[in-house]
Amino acid sequence: MSRTNFDQLLEAGCHFGHLKRKWNPAMAPYIFMEKNGIHIIDLHKTVVKIDEAAEALKNIAKSGRKILFVATKKQAKPVVAEKATSINMPYVIERWPGGMLTNFATIRKAVKKMANIDKLTADGTYANLSKREALQISRQRAKLEKNLGSVADLTRLPAALFVVDVLKEQIAVREANRLGIPVFGIVDTNSNPDNVDFVIPANDDANKSIEVILEACCDAIAEGIEERKAERVDAEAAAEEKPEQADSARIEDEEEAPATE
Length: 261
Known about the structure:
Blueprint: H1 6-11, E1 16-19, E2 31-35, E3 38-41, H2 43-62, E4 67-70, H3 77-86, E5 91-92, H4 104-122, H5 131-148, E6 160-164, H6 170-179, E7 183-187, E8 198-201, H7 207-256
Parallel strand pairs: 4-5, 4-6, 6-7, 7-8
Antiparallel strand pairs: 1-3, 2-3
């Protein structure tokens, strides 16, 4: 069963593309028609593409790896932050830090710096600083939190990128392409789908459109996480049973063995 349907996507306005004069010809396979100078996206294809992306995302989550969500446009920020947080995945909703992926070691240094400030503040090291120095450190911490707070727990490169508006986030897409990290993206009619591994053709401007697609994909990720947990529980249970079986077999062997004089 599909995770979305035509009517659901239609109601969310997923079919509205951009003006014809702004289109990217590479999106032609996903365009159904033109109406009043605006391209209309084929939602039947969108349903299929959402299912494909969701299944791939589920498998990544099931393997225990992280998916980084990227959306710096105003209307996408709240929903991306909410959905990504609900499944414990990192996200970037402020300015994309150049080199976030290609220069990951430097980003990790900035994260460690933020953690160090927290540690020194907690143990009272900064208590004797002047108001000016304390304010400077506080501002530095706030800036780091704004740009890197949601990726503080990302200790290694993400297994995939989920991008809302691949045109706006083209730097992030380019970095992922360079490192061979698969890109999942909501791609509107004005964008180039060629650099996106899992294209979801849809309106990337409307809040409801972004929300319905993210909900389907995040639900799939949540399923992958739950299946991973279930498999670990089963594996632990099986591991506990093995010693018991071994002990039982040993007792049986001793009972069956003939008595020696």
